[in-house]
Amino acid sequence: MPVFDLAKTPLREFNAALHSVGNGDNDTAFEVLNPRGSHALAVGIDQPLSVDVRGSVGYYCAGMNDGGAVTVHGSAGPGVAENMMTGTVTIEGDASQYAGATGRGGLLVIKGNAASRCGISMKGIDIVVHGNIGHMSAFMAQSGHLVVLGDAGEALGDSLYEAKLFVRGEVKSLGADCVEKEMRPEHIEVLAGLLEKAGADAKPEEFKRYGSARTLYNFNIDNADAY
Amino acid sequence: MSYHNPHTPPRKSATFDDYTLAEIRRAAATGIYDIRGAGAKRKVPHFDDLLFLGASISRYPLEGYRERCDTSVTLGTRFAKKPIELKIPITIAGMSFGALSGPAKEALGRGATIAGTSTTTGDGGMTNEERGHSEKLVYQYLPSRYGMNPTDLRRADAIEVVVGQGAKPGGGGMLLGQKISDRVAEMRTLPKGIDQRSACRHPDWTGPDDLEIKILELREITNWEKPIYIKVGGARPYYDTALAVKAGADCVVLDGMQGGTAATQDVFIENVGMPTLACVRPAVQALQDLGMHREVQLIVSGGIRSGADVAKALALGADAVAIGTAALVALGDNDPHLEAEYQKLGTTAGAYDDWHEGRDPAGITTQDPVLAARVDPVAAGRRLANYLKVMTLEAQTIARACGHNRLANLEPEDLCALTMEAAAMAKVPLAGTDWYPGKAGF
């Protein structure tokens, strides 16, 4: 297993090593020591490789991940797994703002809490947060699933499109055009699968589902007060 | 002899003119503000208010048809491993597939490629047609991140982080539902037929310190190969340019208020932002103050129409310009031969700006397949290439007359201003004087 100690090795060298992995290569499991809050760590992965980061990371860890399995054995700064395409990113600790922003696919698991704007503008990613999430989460979320085992802050799902939100705890307030919706069997099934994949000990029936009321989908002057 | 008191003729208010009255009535009738495309239509100080001085005893001109005048420019020399080398300093500005039809985007790529310059994606992602027909393609990184993916990021020739645009600095955008075809909807990961909001802020960074880290991420993903531009609207050009440099930009794209948009509120277009002319010198000053002039290239856009405009922008310190509206006109937008159809839409050729409605008779700002088919990408691309060639020849003509063997050698000393406003904005002397407002010592 290639091991990169970022106390001794430049970030560029590590990311370049990830990008040099090709189809059929044997060394596909990487370990990072002393990440020391590095930004842009393990970004742009485009192969099914694994990365274990022993410590906390800065901004945009695993950004635009496409096929990698990245585990941060610590906490993550803003924008973790932003614009992820496919793969899995797991944060053992907490995540800062914009976790999973604009993600298009894959699974982001945050074992701790996530700060504000978790899942902002998400476009197909699945996000499971074992703890709580901050305000304005899932703002303008277009597609995918956001699962929260704890509580959600203010203005959840503001200006939501077609993303589906599941929250087990309390929601401080819903944003514009976000409403509670019926939890049907198909939602229970999807949620159960996500909880299992995320290693979350919770029952789907304990969650409430939130989604778009779709009243703001086409501009109407009569809705001006909602903007 | 009888005497009749003379009547004063009817007098309309300069403040409440016919256009203003009509807009009040329209607002009262509909309850909604006016949304339109294009840039500011009000008259503002512009490059027309500057003149070149030409050669004289103190300046030695070059022979127009014999002596070479280099037009090439290299963009992205600061950090990128693979800077972009262009044959001409006129690029095609970002315009989205969605706002524009597929054939129109293809034509832009074809025309730019023939001319040896770059074209730019827009808020909607990169299409294969556009990539395939564009030798040099700049990939915009926008707040909405519609269509954003690492594969396209890597197959781009440069990345343009869009912070703002001149038509609406501080504003987002809205692609109305009637332009959302199946393909546009799929590229933007949204249902067909709903309005697609383009956010005014990026979702995962908020300031120059964050932007620096975002640029680091983009460079790491693309192996530090791609030039990274930062595009700003003409609002606070000195500070925005300085902060873009601080954040690590290879190029700054500065878009004045005459720059176009696909759809924004008229009140925004006409009342927010600064004229292009007023933006250039502060941006150049910022680059000079940081020792980065020519190290970080400046691309100016917003109302560039001719080779004279190109030459004036370069003389004020820009390295290149970008055109949008003018390129669409070259493709066939607002052409008088479509007058009958414009009349049916309640407008006239030259004034059509309801680009958001998707009913463009020219087939350019539409997703209607029947209308879009009116654009022949090959012929339209050829027209654009012709236009770019003419602009280049015009700029060369002026540069030679000023004694320069490179367009990049044009300088403020080649210019004078026709108005006090232009003199103040461009910091070149009022014609016939050696003075401009604000110049020290006067």
TrEMBL record, chain A:
GO molecular function terms attached to this record: oxidoreductase activity
Gene3D superfamilies named in the record: Glutamate synthase, alpha subunit, C-terminal domain
InterPro entries tied to this protein: Glu_synth_asu_C_sf, Glu_synth_lsu_3
The protein, known as: Protein GlxC
Species the sequence originates in: Amaricoccus solimangrovi
From TrEMBL, chain B:
Pfam families linked: Glu_synthase
Gene3D superfamilies per record: Aldolase class I
Highest taxon of source: Bacteria
Any GO MF annotation of the entry: glutamate synthase activity
Annotated ranges, domain Glutamate synthase: 79-332, 356-405
Entry keywords, A to Z: Oxidoreductase
Xref: InterPro entries: Aldolase_TIM, GltB, GltB_archl_type, Glu_synthdom
Key word Ligase present: no
One GO BP: glutamate biosynthetic process
Family: Belongs to the glutamate synthase family.
Stated name of the protein: FMN-binding glutamate synthase family protein
Upper classification of the organism: Bacteria, Pseudomonadati, Pseudomonadota, Alphaproteobacteria, Rhodobacterales
